[in-house]
Design goal:
- 51% of the residues lie in helices and 16% in strands.
- By secondary structure, it is α+β, with helices and mostly antiparallel strands.
- The chain has a 4-stranded antiparallel sheet with strand order 1-2-4-3, covered by helices on one side.
């Protein structure tokens, strides 16, 4: 394990970058990453955030509570993340303290699509916590990044 926080962040970024590149060769990186994020998120919510289960059913408030709980646990640095929204859509601005920014910058500089891990993580959290599907979208990569989570029109049968 790396000895510093910066070393751990670099390791995480290289790991995720490699996973995304590998999943691109399989043809559907979004689906592959959704599966990986869901498995890790369920384990994380169960073991590290049991108090998170009592969060409100409002998607915006659930995103705020998850970000605060994740920040408190050391998973992410959410101090520069701002949420707005209603019951069908959540908009967020994610600042420079995102632990995945380095990986996103490399992909952007290579001319590859930027895959927002934070947006996917929030969408999966909403699916697990609220039992509702939200489609994540990176609207703008920059300072700050802008994402939108929109309630899916997909209805299961």
């Amino acid at each position: 394990m790396p000895a510093t926080e910066d070393g751990a962040n670099r390791l995480l970024n290289f790991f995720l970058y490699g996973m995304i590149r590998a999943s691109e060769s399989l043809g559907n990186p979004a689906l592959f990453m959704r599966s990986v994020i869901e498995a890790g998120l369920r384990r994380f919510l169960f073991t590290n955030l049991p108090a998170f289960a009592g969060t409100p059913d409002d998607p915006t408030k659930a995103c705020e509570a998850f970000t605060k709980a994740s920040d408190d646990s050391g998973l992410i640095d959410g101090r520069d993340t701002v949420f707005r929204g209603d019951g069908d859509s959540v908009s967020a601005e994610i600042g420079d303290h995102c632990p995945y920014r380095r990986m996103c910058t490399v992909r952007h500089d290579e001319g590859r699509p930027v895959f927002c891990v934070r947006a996917s993580m929030l969408a999966e959290m909403l699916r697990v916590r609220l039992e509702a599907d939200f489609d994540p979208k990176l609207n703008r990569f920059g300072r700050p990044c802008q994402i939108t989570l929109t309630r899916s029109r997909w209805k299961g049968s």
